[in-house]
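Why show two proteins at once? Because comparison is the fastest way to build intuition. When a single record is shown, students tend to memorize it. When two are placed side by side, the eye starts asking what differs. So, the first record is below.
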Amino acid sequence: MDPSDARFPAVGPAAGHYESFYLKAGDAASRRALWLRYTVHKRPGAPPVGSLWATLFDDAGPHAAKLTPGPEQLGSGGADWLRVGGGRIGADGCSGAIPELAAWELRFAGDEPPFPYLPSGWMYTAKLPRTKALSLRPAIRVSGTVTVRGRTVTLDDWPGMVGHNWGAEHAERWIWMNGTAFEEQPDAWLDATIGRIKVGPWTTPWVANGCLSLDGVRHRLGGLGKARAVQVREHPERATFTLPGDGIVVRGDVAAPRADVVGWVYSDPAVAGGQHHTAHCAIADMTLTVLRGDQPPLTLHVAGGATYELGMREHDHGIPIQPFSDP
């Protein structure tokens, strides 16, 4: 199956399912960024429902909007990875509108091939893990315009990425990090997911899967065999981490002021009333220290050009949650 194919059309009526195509694009110099999501949410026994999510980050904080039209306004195929209402996302770009709150028309450029977070192809068809994800377009340039809650921004070749994830349930706890436009190596990028999975009464340690691209060479990070060496200390607005790979170790810190973090509700598709809170910032600061054998340590830093997301069960984190249900 093509990595960009929507999975929801093949989900049986009795199953629960969620799916997301998401875009992050940012301009570190002006400390502005855009985070868009085109999502599918399906309860067991119910039809799938699509939603459009938009968050614009700037010097006044995050500005957010969401729309969930009826299930008849969800589709996929042709040039569109996903269609929700009048919005669509595909290889060439994306568009969408949330009446009175947001509108966007964006173009994508760049041909970086997908990066599968899961290290083995069979993991994308197996029952476990229940969450599948890949970086569909890891390094693109985004141009166009977006308006969210009266604030209009022009994107002129902003660095960004598009991801695709789907599954029967969310991880018990997760982190997504993305870094671009590093001062020392502007073409380098980091993209990593880190999760803890609930298996019966137990919750696994952190398992990382990701990539650091340096000088056009991809260095895979994490994997099941390296789970014991993964170190994470996470908070809604900050995390420190150690991510091991083959012949490489990446240590880092990602952080943002609390006022720059947006909070959203993510519902569990197969559990009535089950929810995660998600704290997300797309204008975070990131510093990486890269260790590779006998080479000198390499430091990479970007101010305002990184993304940090924490998905969690607790609701006492202090991040204001947007007044939108899911779906």
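Second record. Ask yourself what differs from the first in the token line.
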Amino acid sequence: MRILIIEDDRKTAALLSSTLTQEGFDVVLEVDGEAGLKEALKGGFEALVLDIMLPKLDGLSLIRALRAKGDRTPVLMLSARGEVQQRVDGLDAGADDYLPKPYAASELLARLRSLMRRNTHVKPTVITIADFAFDMATREARRGGRRIDLSSRESLLLECLLRAEGGVVSRRDIIRAVWEYDFDPGTNLVEVYIRRLRDKLDRDSVPALIQTVRGLGYALHIQP
């Protein structure tokens, strides 16, 4: 489960990152609002944890921009300003929950889990892109009405790409999600499975769905 932290206080960010990593989360950290928004828009995060007071782009503006793009990733906002009006401003901007500083790590984790459970309940089971459909519950894939037989690894790879919602997924993240390795084995394993998945999804079908983003990774979307 990937969590994006956007926090400019490096001591707070390091502590928060360490806490979530120890709980099994895959943490991505950004220290200013502009970089945080850019990373968030790549997609693939289960939740965002961000401070209101950020350099370059404040947290309220960041969440408004994110929601304006149609991104519904759950957001937990943090701030030393715990007054009622500040909480209202954060929620009105599009945040899903608000936690004033200082906070207990146990409460932060409980609120994050609650947000992710809530988000899981509202997500559609079947994801469709053009004439392609994938049922996240049964892992049944179809394109143009024909059923696509997938191995368990191919299903995990497809799910990994779909969860990014069109964003780029790095080779490292694919390895972690599909093979549960915390290191790159240095083989062409990812390329082999991408090739297999392409052959099943994109062969004799247009438009192509699986895109290679040179130097970054892979994405599943229709090229504009």
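One difference worth noting in the second protein: Residues 2-122 form a domain with the Rossmann fold fold (CATH 3.40.50.2300).
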